[in-house]
Amino acid sequence: MGAMSLEEITYQNDNFDWFVRQVTLELPIQRMLRGYKDYSLK
């Protein structure tokens, strides 16, 4: 495909930032909430 334009590189970096944020912030919070729900059901 040849060299990427600056816009494409920036877009990919934004997606990567979003992905990192999902993994580092969202998933542990969801896991904690799920664990809290399981704990409170008992």
* Total number of helices: 1
Low-confidence stretches: none
The major sheet is characterized as:
none
Number of strands: 0
Calculate the mean pLDDT score and round it: 80
**Percent strand:** under 5%
Radius of gyration: 18 Å
Kindly, what is the distance between the CA atoms of the first and last residues, rounded to a whole number of angstroms?
A: 56 Å
Q: What does the overall shape look like? A: rod-shaped
Q: By helix and strand content, what is the structural category?
A: mainly alpha
State the helicity in percent bands: over 70%
- Listing every helix as H and every strand as E from the N terminus to the C terminus, the arrangement reads H
